[in-house]
Amino acid sequence: MTVKESNPFGFLKTKEIIAILDGDTKYNEYEFDDGTSVTVVMPYLSGPDLCDIFTLFGLPMTYTRGGTNLSRWQYLDNLMEYCMKENRCSDLLSYLFAKERFAKTLSGHGADEIYAAYTHISNEIIQKINGILFFGGNELAVIGNALKKQIETEKAKQKSSKDTTTSLNEIMEIVNSYNGTLTQFDDVVIRKVVEYVKVISSDKIQHYLYS
Q1: Is 31 within 8 Å of 37 (Cβ atoms)?
Q2: pLDDT tens for each residue of 120-139
Q3: How many CB atoms neighbour CB 151 within 10 A?
Q4: What is the pLDDT of residues 63-75, one digit of tens each?
Q5: Distance from C-alpha of 85 to C-alpha of 96, rounded to nearest angstrom
Q6: Prediction pTM value
Q7: How far apart are CA 98 and CA 92, in angstroms?
Q8: What is the C-alpha to C-alpha distance for residues 159 and 163, in angstroms, rounded to an integer?
């Protein structure tokens, strides 16, 4: 029996991945130029830290010291569930991977060294998570420069590829039916080209227009 995942970010809600995100799972060491090193690991999230994040994302939560509280794993699992319902999982992941979270670990070095270490650690952790997701056909993807994350299924990738091909075919139909010069293209053609120029290379556009 196959269980269909209703939210793509649900693939992250496993104990193995949550243990990575809350700072429990440690990997190799990263060495700075001065010979000091730090462990490749996500910033450690304590119970109070997780309650603060809950509050930050719109669901006030209080940690009672010495009282009865959830485990750190349960807090993060519940937080991800809440963000899934609110469609804010990308925001949560962006927050967890933001360079500010690594300040305690990486401070005391030059800006270039900190940037290099931060980039190495965040990329290494994303690769470790993708190693877990790989066999399910999923991937944690970095979008833009803000380290915004999203889950991409193989089906989504195939659909994107199909949509791009369809768009190129639409452009080709217009090109083939046009009798004037390229510089006199109808505005519809120009809009079509501009709309998809970001998803196909200029070389490929030239190939379709001039081959």
Answers
A1: yes
A2: 999 999 999 999 998 888 88
A3: 21
A4: 888 777 889 999 9
A5: 18
A6: 0.65
A7: 10
A8: 6
